[in-house]
Amino acid sequence: MLQLVGKDALAETDKITLETAKLLREDYLAQNAFTPYDKFCPFYKSVWMMRNIVHFNALANQAVEKAAGMDGQKITYSLIKHRLGDLFYRLVSQKFEDPAEGEEALVAKFKKLNEDLTAGFRALEDETR
């Protein structure tokens, strides 16, 4: 179906769902045994990566749905990706964090990303009101 109508014909929430599925498939599930950061993945790293991906999905859907009912500028998936591109890049780059840095250091980075996602979406919603 998607190949027939194209991504542009999808609802904004469906675009977010597709991007989340892509994140899960390409950045969460795919592993490269030949790299030091990815040859094994400790449980805490898996949990925090998933937590941040799910958090992004929830915040993005919430922002799109809130803006749909308001008179302000509409929040679209392309606007999210454009304005929050640096956060999206950090989300994709989580897999490159090396467990050799230690659990405490990685958890701090993952928590910071989680907080930055919340702040980024809050700022985006404030801008579009």
Automatic annotation (TrEMBL):
Keyword Secreted: no
GO terms under biological process: ATP metabolic process
Name of the protein in question: ATP synthase A/B type C-terminal domain-containing protein
Organism: Gossypium raimondii
UniProt similarity note: Belongs to the ATPase alpha/beta chains family.
Keywords: ATP-binding, Hydrogen ion transport, Ion transport, Nucleotide-binding, Translocase, Transport
Pfam families in alphabetical order: ATP-synt_VA_C
UniProt-recorded Gene Ontology molecular function terms: ATP binding; proton-transporting ATPase activity, rotational mechanism
Matches recorded under PANTHER family: H(+)-TRANSPORTING TWO-SECTOR ATPASE, V-TYPE PROTON ATPASE CATALYTIC SUBUNIT A
InterPro entries attached to this UniProt entry: ATP-synt_VA_C, ATPase_F1/V1_b/a_C, V-ATPase_asu
Superkingdom, taxonomy of origin: Eukaryota
Any one GO CC term of the record: plant-type vacuole
Domain ATP synthase A/B type C-terminal residue range list: 1-63
